[in-house]
């Protein structure tokens, strides 16, 4: 099973579909991206469910930066899916294809693995992390 992202004319992901693996080609089909793109009337790019931050979650080879999600943009030059920029001050990390805040999250920030730390939020007006009251 493989996943494919359908793109609008601005290369924004409109939908992600489940399809057939690249090597599972019946007679008459030579490329699933072309096939699904023609079927849906949109550009189609394969995406990897296991790729986040240009890392493969299972230790394999990362594919196209990040798993595509609707509203992500496919960047042809980077051959990567990039999420929307969360704030104007955040900068695209060329390695992860994710957005980085201009100031690092404090060391005592929320840890999703063990549920500890402070849940800071980003304040764009001050371009800083702020602890809730």
Notes on the structure:
- The chain is 7% helix and 30% strand.
- It has 1 helix and 11 strands; from the N terminus they run ββαβββββββββ.
- A 3-stranded antiparallel β-sheet has the order 2-1-3. A two-stranded antiparallel sheet has the order 4-5.
- It has one helix at residues 32-40; strands spanning 2-7, 13-19, 43-47, 51-52, 55-56, 73-75, 80-82, 91-93, 98-100, 121-123, 128-130.
Fold blueprint:
Blueprint (H helix, E strand, L loop, with lengths): L1 E6 L5 E7 L12 H9 L2 E5 L3 E2 L2 E2 L16 E3 L4 E3 L8 E3 L4 E3 L20 E3 L4 E3 L3
Antiparallel strand pairs: 1-2, 1-3, 4-5, 6-7, 8-9, 10-11
End-to-end gap:
47 Å
Reported for the largest beta sheet, the result is: 3 strands, antiparallel
SS-based structural class? mainly beta
Number of strands: 11
Keywords for this structure?
133 residues, 1 helix, three-stranded antiparallel beta sheet, two-stranded antiparallel ribbon, mainly beta, 30% strand
Task: Describe what is shown at a glance.
With 133 residues, this protein is mainly β.
């Amino acid at each position: 099973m493989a996943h494919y992202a359908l793109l609008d004319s601005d290369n924004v992901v409109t939908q992600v579909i489940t399809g057939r693996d690249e090597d599972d080609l019946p007679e008459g089909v030579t490329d699933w991206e072309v096939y699904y793109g023609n079927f849906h009337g949109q550009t189609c790019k394969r995406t990897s469910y296991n790729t986040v931050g240009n890392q493969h979650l299972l230790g394999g080879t990362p594919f196209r930066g990040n798993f595509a999600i609707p509203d992500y943009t496919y960047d042809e030059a980077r051959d990567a899916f990039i999420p929307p920029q969360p704030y104007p001050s955040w900068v695209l990390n060329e390695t992860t294809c994710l957005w980085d805040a201009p100031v690092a999250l404090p060391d005592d920030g929320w840890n999703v693995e063990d549920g500890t730390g402070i849940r800071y939020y980003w304040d764009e007006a001050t371009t800083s992390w702020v602890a809730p009251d």
